[in-house]
């Protein structure tokens, strides 16, 4: 589906093996997810494949002139599996006891410094999914899970940041990611005050976010992190989605009328 929207994919992970994406209707932190990165990925989203590999880390590159020189449409992309939940690269060992952030607030990227500094400059990605779950707080004891997807049925592409950590014993690298969130749009506000940053598949905004010539954080990149303007389909689903380890196609289907009436009756009983 990504290639149908002009995203040139040069490589994708195998469906089997330890690096295979976790296929489930109930995705949880720590699982292998699918992310899209520029084809220069291992050098960071900001390292351009045309002469910038050897640039000094401290040098200043004109991001916009680089984008114009290469042309946004010239960029090629790779799909990779990464674990959901950032393990910062400054962690000394794989599996070290460090906080794993599954989300990153957009406003935390406005200022210089902090744990996201290196990632926002060079390690930007797009996380690919059918949609996401959010729980509506009906009362202190009652929550209703909702599934959120695009109205047109296309894949959702969340703006994200990635990082990697090497195992000192084996030399292997573990790649992890976090999803960037922003204020909810009007459609989703009844459900939660935050939502993932959703970039339209094949859009100029998505390609700018991933473009390898952008090696430093700018106001232009920050401006891409905004509430989604397209139409969303939001509906309640089975509470079974809250059971860890369970997966079923029914988790992303609307509750049937009978089930919905039963739940509504419970709310007001």
Q: What can you tell me about this protein's structure?
A:
The protein is α+β, with helices and mostly antiparallel strands and 269 residues long. The chain has a single domain (3-267), classed as hypothetical protein yedk fold (Alpha-Beta Complex), CATH 3.90.1680. It contains 5 helices and 11 strands. It has helices at 63-70, 117-122, 204-210, 219-223, 257-267; strands at 9-11, 32-38, 77-84, 103-105, 124-129, 132-137, 143-150, 156-166, 173-183, 194-196, 232-236. A hairpin with a 5-residue loop joins β6 (132-137) and β7. The longest helix is centred in the C-terminal third of the chain and has 11 residues, at 257-267. The termini are far apart. The model is unreliable at 46-70 and 257-269 (pLDDT under 50).
Give the total of domains.
1
Kindly report the spatial arrangement of strands forming the biggest sheet: 2-3-9-8-5
What is the CATH fold-level name? hypothetical protein yedk fold
CATH class: Alpha Beta
| Total strand segments | 11
CATH superfamily: SOS response associated peptidase-like
Low-confidence stretches: 46-70, 257-269
Estimate percent helicity. 10-25%
Label the overall shape.
globular
Number of helices: 5
> Could you spell the SSE succession in H and E letters?
EEHEEHEEEEEEHHEH
Mean of the pLDDT scores? Answer: 80
Distance between the termini: 45 Å
Kindly name the structural category.
Answer: alpha+beta
CATH architecture: Alpha-Beta Complex
Largest sheet: 5 strands, mixed, barrel
